[in-house]
């Protein structure tokens, strides 16, 4: 057994898994409040990463300025998505809205390929590239940053839903729209905020991955991994999304290890999360944290 | 009952519903000309059997009708002289009208405290904490369950939470839809006692929908009785309490127990129009 490699892969799994968790949270946020399964979640990462890349490379902005611009852009983008594209569909069957998100994901991906090309473009260097030694493991500074950002976002979500006015309003809307309206909450505004926050936070994940791997259309496939994470967590649980993300991330890396050491099937690790997903759903149909009666976040 | 005398200085009308007609889904006519007035600082009750249109009347006032595909197609609702019919509920809440919906409707996956903070959603001032203490003083049971999930509260506690949550909005007028629903007689007494003291302490104007007519008329200054989408009778507390038809249909024969033989006649529902 190569313990060092295994340890390294588990750490990688946790780091990537936390990013899965973050994006899965964004996915759950939209699903929980608006009942829309957003198939364009992965494209939010793609659009966010390309926007930031364009700010840094084309407009030569300093990183923090470009990053802040990206956040603002994605926030507005999310609101516009709700107001211009999705709002006219209020009252239509939810399946139409879901089909629309599939359409959007195709359009966004094509648009990004057309604007930025098909090939991987490296992100301008923001952090030092040399790996640092943490507890005997070689870790790239960008990974540490990724982990810190993930944790900050998760803690931010927790406080947002627990203490902010809008966070409480979102939970109330998710529980019962009529009750929320009777308290003076505008459901349209809540929906717009959900899309805006989801787009903004996904973009952060997109930028983080872009910094490590470069930006390319592969980012939108990240969204596909987020589905098993979210479903595993029960689709409507924020905590579940994080746990689901971690499980998928670690599994992916450990199965890569198993494959490279013994099986030599090549590429096996890509689909292992989906097998695990099927097995867990057979045992727990509502996912690990899903709602049956009383809901939780 | 005896203390109604000082109130009779004809207070100004806060809310008036003028001959409204309400249609659901563009076709189902539910209210067929309902008019009522609620004077400032008073409790007015709206009584009637199941399906009479009481909840619909409240929703027409609070704007929640919109969330159920309903619409006021004729007549107007005015609050402080301003016409508010068919406005969005979130606008009407900001004008100071707050509806406590039928069936409690607390957010079950939130704690008691979170539900109360949610009640203050429309407020931006700094007194939210102080009002939370005020609510806890009215409903000491909520204080004990402050950190627990609202879904695990008893029915009575949930009703108290729903009313407390409404107070957190600092409304100028409260619309209460059957607060006694599903509560034991003892709890009904407790809840109604608190409703009365809120009205007394704060001068909060209330429109109280009830099926429990005897309890409601104990605290109301004025009452309306609805049947099949119309107001069929109205009057002061004393007038309604002494009205023979009201006694027979809604008060279960008044104070004295009558003989078993007479009970049968209560089943015959009398119509006023
Ligand atoms: N959303 C709706 N769509 C269609 N019809 C409705 C709707 N809500 C209520 N109704 C109908 O309107 C009528 C009056 O209902 P409403 O709820 O106002 O009665 P209520 O007096 O509050 O009765 P209860 O005492 O049982 O609560 C009923 O016949 C009901 O079926
Ligand atoms: Mg009703």
Note the total helix count of chain B. Answer: 11
- What's the Cα radius of gyration of chain A? 19 Å
Taken from the alpha-carbon principal axes, the silhouette of chain A is: globular
Our count of domains of chain A comes out at: 1
Overall pLDDT of chain A, averaged?
87
Along the chain, the helix and strand elements of chain B come as EEEHEEHEHHHHEHEHEEHHH
| Termini Cα gap of chain A | 40 Å
Poorly predicted sequence stretches spanning 5 or more consecutive residues of chain A: 293-297
| Rg for CA atoms of chain B | 19 Å
CATH class designation of the domain at 11-96 and 173-182 and 205-247 in chain B: Alpha Beta
Strand coverage percent of chain B:
25-35%
Main sheet overview of chain A = 2 strands, antiparallel
Q: Would you list the SSEs of chain A in sequence order as H and E? A: HHHHEEHHHHHHH
Quaternary organization: heterodimer
The helix fraction of chain A, in percent, is over 70%
The pair of chains with the biggest contact is:
A-B, 21 and 28 residues
Name every ligand kind in the structure.
adenosine-5'-triphosphate, magnesium ion
The count of DSSP E runs of length 2 or more, i.e. the number of strands of chain B, is 10
